[in-house]
């Protein structure tokens, strides 16, 4: 390593933390270096603990915040220059100055009242550095401009994330989300949505769980069951209020779950779907059927999932009987044209971040017009047309869903959207296509939580 000359203040970079430019005060009186950090929280396993924290790299610019995470090296008592002692978390990261870099230990502390966001202690100033206490910035100048350009995203390192999966089930999809996330070095915590409760206030909205405030998550992956949609979406709304990135937003989940609302959204965007009618009046059975067409007809409960509450009425008489039965139960339902040419098959397109990442054809079990895999249907990989791909993407976009299973029927007049599922299962489609769908979801999460450039202030 070449000899470096340091003044009492220098520009440095901590690339491993995503901090490409930060001003540091050199202090030979301090042993360990210190970084201004707030919202400090530990996470990960006891064997491999990590720490997540936020840094305002520019003094006086609270709007510029970089979220960092790093393996935890130690926790030790540090006495500051004014004689005060505090327990601080210690991390190790690379310091980069003048084209050279070397590992240093850094303690995390609140330096909000100090101009320099970092202090460089003796341990960081190795034998090749000479200090000139009367001069400053002897090394090349860096610029805070990097935080105002796209370069801040490009230079951001892949860091360990803390992710919550909202799920009440220990099934293939939930286990895959945990396993794939942890293989990538993230910490993935499964949270039972019904055990969350919320502190709703303007200044500090919080989500609590089992008696404790939940930590700050980098992302939330909702897998909300149909039976708890209203409460589950309220929990997601709370995370949205806090500012956490949610793969699927509360509004999109709510709209897609209510079949009537979902069909109205699709119609408003002129997205093809089977002719559909809805009514709540017991006198309108024949008129309702007339709006849709002739038998056979599909009659669906609005709250149906996995093919339950979906009936094929093959004759006009059968349709009237089913409708009267549903009305007798005071159930909300819709009547839909039966697309005969689909012949008990549909296409499930899995959309992640505006791309169809996989598609499979589902065929119903013998004698069953429903193709749901939960009902004994089978699946195989399928090539979809450009029109089918565009329809699936438009449908997911209509609900603002980052992750969606879009079910299409192949009809003579083009693809028809049957349903948009905000919590699609991964097992059937991963096994049918051999693709790592969950990995693609994590690619999107990792891209989304990178820092965003912040606009410069006038005169700033």
From TrEMBL:
Gene Ontology biological process: SOS response; translation
Cofactors: Mg(2+); Mn(2+)
GO cellular component: cytoplasm; ribosome
GO MF term set: ATP binding; metal ion binding; ribosomal S6-glutamic acid ligase activity
Keyword annotations of the record: ATP-binding, Ligase, Magnesium, Manganese, Metal-binding, Nucleotide-binding, Protein biosynthesis, Ribonucleoprotein, Ribosomal protein
Gene3D superfamilies, per database record: 3.40.50.20, Acid Proteases (2.40.70.10), ATP-grasp fold, A domain (3.30.1490.20), ATP-grasp fold, B domain (3.30.470.20)
Highest taxon above the source species: Bacteria
Keyword Glycosyltransferase recorded: no
Record domain ATP-grasp: where: 263-446
The keyword Ribonucleoprotein is assigned to this record: yes
Family designation: In the C-terminal section; belongs to the RimK family.
Protein name: Probable alpha-L-glutamate ligase
Organism field: Sulfitobacter geojensis
Lineage: Bacteria, Pseudomonadati, Pseudomonadota, Alphaproteobacteria, Rhodobacterales
UniProt gene name: rimK
């Amino acid at each position: 390593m070449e000899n470096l000359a340091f003044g009492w203040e220098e520009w440095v970079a901590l690339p491993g933390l995503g901090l490409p430019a930060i001003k540091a005060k050199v202090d030979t009186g301090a042993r360990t270096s210190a970084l201004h950090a707030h919202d400090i929280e530990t996470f990960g396993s006891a064997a491999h603990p990590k720490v997540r924290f936020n840094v305002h790299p520019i003094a006086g610019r609270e709007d510029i915040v970089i979220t960092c995470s790093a393996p935890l090296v130690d926790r030790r008592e540090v006495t500051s220059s004014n004689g005060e002692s505090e327990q601080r978390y210690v991390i190790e990261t690379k310091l980069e100055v003048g084209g050279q870099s070397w590992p240093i230990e850094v303690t995390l502390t609140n330096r909000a009242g100090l101009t320099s966001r970092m202090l460089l202690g003796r341990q960081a100033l190795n034998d090749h550095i000479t200090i000139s206490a009367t001069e400053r910035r002897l090394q090349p100048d860096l610029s805070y401009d990097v935080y105002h350009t796209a370069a801040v995203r490009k230079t951001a390192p892949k860091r360990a994330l803390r992710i919550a999966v909202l799920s009440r089930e220990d099934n293939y999809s939930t286990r895959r989300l945990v396993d794939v996330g942890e293989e990538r070095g993230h910490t993935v915590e499964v949270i039972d949505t019904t055990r969350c409760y919320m502190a709703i206030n303007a200044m500090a909205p919080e989500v609590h769980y089992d008696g404790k405030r939940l930590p700050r998550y980098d992302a939330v992956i909702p897998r909300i069951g149909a039976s708890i949609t209203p409460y589950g979406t309220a929990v997601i709304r709370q995370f949205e209020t806090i500012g956490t990135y949610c793969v699927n937003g509360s509004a999109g989940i709510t709209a897609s779950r209510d079949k009537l609302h979902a069909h109205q959204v699709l119609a408003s965007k002129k997205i093809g779907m089977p002719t559909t009618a809805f009514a709540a009046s017991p006198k309108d059975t024949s008129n309702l059927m007339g709006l849709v067409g002739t038998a056979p007809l599909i009659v669906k409960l609005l709250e149906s999932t996995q093919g339950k509450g979906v009936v094929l009425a093959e004759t006009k008489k059968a349709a009237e009987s089913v409708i009267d039965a549903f009305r007798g139960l005071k159930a909300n339902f819709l009547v839909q044209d039966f697309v005969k040419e689909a012949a008990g098959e549909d296409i499930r397109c899995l959309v992640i971040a505006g791309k169809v990442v996989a598609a499979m054809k589902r065929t119903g079990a013998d004698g069953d017009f429903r193709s749901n895999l939960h009902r004994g249907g089978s699946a195989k990989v399928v090539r979809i047309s450009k029109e089918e791909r565009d329809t699936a993407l438009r449908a997911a976009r209509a609900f603002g869903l980052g992750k969606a299973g879009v079910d299409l029927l192949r009809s003579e007049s083009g693809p028809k959207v049957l349903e948009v599922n905000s919590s699609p299962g991964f097992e059937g489609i991963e096994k049918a296509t051999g693709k790592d769908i969950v990995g693609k979801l994590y690619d999107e999460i990792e891209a989304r939580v990178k820092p965003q450039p912040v606009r410069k202030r006038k005169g700033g």
